[in-house]
User: What shape does this take?
Amino acid sequence: VSEASEAERVKSATAEAVAQALQARAVPGRVMIHSAPTGATCLSASGEELGTTPLSISGEKITEAGAIVLKLSGHRDGKTEALAIPPENTTTEVKIALTPLPHVTFASTPAGASVRLDGTETKLGTTPFDWVMSEALADKLTAGESVRLTFERPGSRASTHTLTQDQIKDGRAVVAKPLKPVVRRALGPAHSGRTKSAKKRSESKPKPKPKPKPKPKPKPKPKKKSGFTF
Assistant: This one.
């Protein structure tokens, strides 16, 4: 056997051994899901919780998951496209940026006012506090509508505020509300004295006696006729 033939045989055997080794060590393809910020909960299309970002999914779980929804407090939901299984021994990176929802800081003078959505009994908190707007209300502002809020505090007059998209700058808004005290008018000493003296005068003043009813006049008696005629 020539040296060239022997070298070719060894090369072929080596390639086959490497292929067999790689096949034995084959790892199913993986998908790595990242979110910004991290820590988002990942849900499958069926609603199953898969874990939090960064999250690695492999094999059949990828196709079972479908389009994954990412949820993080204070942010709008994110969503991936329907995932496919990558080739063996490979990893596909998926990055989703989550949009923060508007944050509103509420304050009042004096503090301790409860804030609620106007027309509802939904209490948002007691001043001072921070509030993260829901996705539905954020969509309402984006569409050009407004959100009306009511401030209520014992001893103060109720006050309202209309929140619009223009008031939100860089995802934040500050609503500070001065509250007017409830004024209760009390009777002064002079007024109270006049009231008491007038009451005494009315009590001491004698009541008029009822007028007696007039007695009916007696009817005149008829005159007696005499027996003489002229």
Summary: The CA atoms of residues 16 and 100 lie 54 Å apart. The two ends are 205 Å apart (CA to CA). The chain has a mean pLDDT of 83. The chain has four helices and 14 strands.
